[in-house]
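=== How it folds ===
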Amino acid sequence: MPIVFRYEGFRFFFYSNEGNPREPLHIHVRKAEGEAKFWLRPEVGLAESTGFDAPTLRRLLGVVDSNRDVIERAWHAYFG
């Protein structure tokens, strides 16, 4: 489970097995109280979430959007 980066206690990561066939480009975010998954294309958007409230999800959406290039580079470096 490669961690791409951490932000305020949140881990932004990929699962090593992202499906077969592999799901489109996305990132998972986890902290003790919950987990969320965000798509990166065609635009950053929430795929699913458990345990996070709406203000937290809006903040995480902004973090993902601001780091989209970092996430995409990490995805392609890891999955090829």
The mean pLDDT is 95. Strands lie at 3-7, 10-13, 26-31, 34-39, 45-50.
